[in-house]
Design goal:
It is built from 14 helices and no strands. With 408 residues, it is an all-alpha fold. The chain folds into 2 domains: 1-182, Up-down Bundle (Growth Hormone, Chain: A), CATH 1.20.1250; 199-390, MFS general substrate transporter like domains (Growth Hormone, Chain: A, Up-down Bundle). Its main location: membrane. It is found in: Cell membrane.
């Protein structure tokens, strides 16, 4: 797994990602706590997530088409600089309109940056090692999240959220530096689509012709919207029935990050990014989400958050891996853009919905309801994929044993 770090370009990219993700999650923690303490509304947090997701939904297809045509590196450097400026903008005011504007502009950047990041990252390693690279990337990103949340949880109580915004702005310089130092001659050249199939419509037609991909995307949407918005429900649980503090929120965020690292290590070590693993994990985390609504205290909630986070990373990483490995390389940008559309739609719909449920029926009841819905969706998705792929559904410890070869 860690042999990938011997590749110079990937090593630079991984180190930059570790730093940048740490800064990003410091800002997420600071911004979420700022909004919650200022407004007392989980729905407002959901609105911020929706504003970040909306541009991706509207512009993501264009971003995917451009990613399949344009050189990624200069554009990625420009995007990082703009993100740094947006983080600095939060230092000059914390009113809702500035927060909303930053969230909206961040979403516009993500519309074009997301597909380019995915296509650029897959060019750094051989196609046979893409699954391992994505899993290792999840581990490193989760490690950055742990560091960012742990340090952010300490600083937010000492300096307030402003210091977290400044650190995040500085972290983007690491990505710019890594991109500047990469050796372009050592990157893998991805297949290019012919001129007749480079458009947005051609990308959508291709995705619609892949039934297994469509089922995976649908499952990702349901579990992502109702089962992956813990930045909303976790904060609502802490400030509500768990009677916690900013320290409790930081602690749970760190526990979530530790679980994410564990999930990434398990997946990268097993090398088993198969549809069976995806289905089993989706069912597992949905049942645990239902149980988390019954947690009696912060420690009990943390005990459930840990495996939920591990499973969420496994699920999301396998989705990304299968979406890329089971589709044509020249469609990579547009396929990733479609996945980005699903993710943004799940955030746009799910975050406000979860926030509204937390405010209306209570955080516990919201987790119970969402957990029940995602469990049913996981079972239905398994049945649909089994029918399309023509295999029997089985659950066994062998799911996470390293296979001699890896079928879908």
């Amino acid at each position: 797994m860690f042999a990938l770090l011997r590749v110079r370009n990937y090593r630079l990219w991984a180190a930059a990602d570790l730093v940048s993700v740490g800064g990003t999650w410091m800002q997420v923690l600071g911004l979420n706590w700022l909004i919650l303490t200022a407004t007392g509304s989980a729905a407002t947090m959901g609105l911020v997530v929706m504003l970040q997701a909306l541009p991706v939904l509207l512009l993501g297809s264009w971003g995917g088409a451009l990613a399949d045509r344009l050189p990624a590196r200069p554009f990625l450097m420009a995007f990082q600089m703009v993100r740094a400026l947006l983080a600095l903008a939060l230092l000059f005011g914390s009113n809702n309109w500035i927060i909303y504007a930053v969230a909206l502009l961040s979403g516009v950047i993500s519309s074009f940056e997301g597909p380019m990041l995915g296509r650029f990252g897959s060019a750094l390693v051989p196609s046979s090692q893409l699954g391992s690279a994505l899993a290792l990337g999840s581990v490193l990103s989760s490690a950055g999240r742990i560091g960012g949340m742990a340090l952010g949880g300490v600083l937010v109580g000492i300096t307030g959220p402003s210091a977290l915004f400044a650190i995040n702005a500085a972290s983007y310089l690491a990505v710019i530096g890594a991109l500047a130092l990469m050796r372009t001659g050592e990157m893998r050249t991805l297949e290019a689509a012919p001129a007749s199939s480079r458009g947005i419509v051609a990308g959508f037609r291709y995705v619609l012709s892949q039934p297994a991909v469509l089922i995976v995307l649908a499952l990702s949407f349901v579990l992502g919207s109702l089962g992956r918005n813990y930045q909303v429900s976790m904060a609502a649980m802490v400030s509500g029935p768990l009677s916690g503090s900013s320290g409790s929120y930081g602690f749970l965020s760190t526990v979530f990050a530790v679980g994410a690292v564990a999930g990434g290590l398990l997946l990268a070590g097993s090398g088993r990014s198969t549809l069976r693993v995806l289905l089993a994990t989706g069912f597992f985390i949905s049942v645990l989400q239902f149980a988390s609504g019954l947690a009696p205290n912060v420690l009990g909630f943390a005990a459930l958050i840990l495996p939920i986070a591990a499973g969420a990373v496994i699920f999301d990483t396998v989705v990304s891996t299968r979406i890329q490995l089971d589709t044509r390389e020249e469609m990579r940008g547009r396929v990733l853009a479609t996945l980005g559309l699903v993710s943004s739609l799940s955030g746009m719909v799910g975050a406000p919905a979860v926030g509204w449920l937390c405010d209306t029926i209570g955080p516990r009841e919201a987790l119970l309801l969402a957990g029940a819905v995602t469990t049913i969706a996981a079972v239905m998705g398994a049945l649909a994929l089994a029918r399309v792929k023509g295999y029997a559904l089985t659950l066994s410890p062998a799911l996470f044993r390293r296979p001699a070869e890896q079928p879908a």
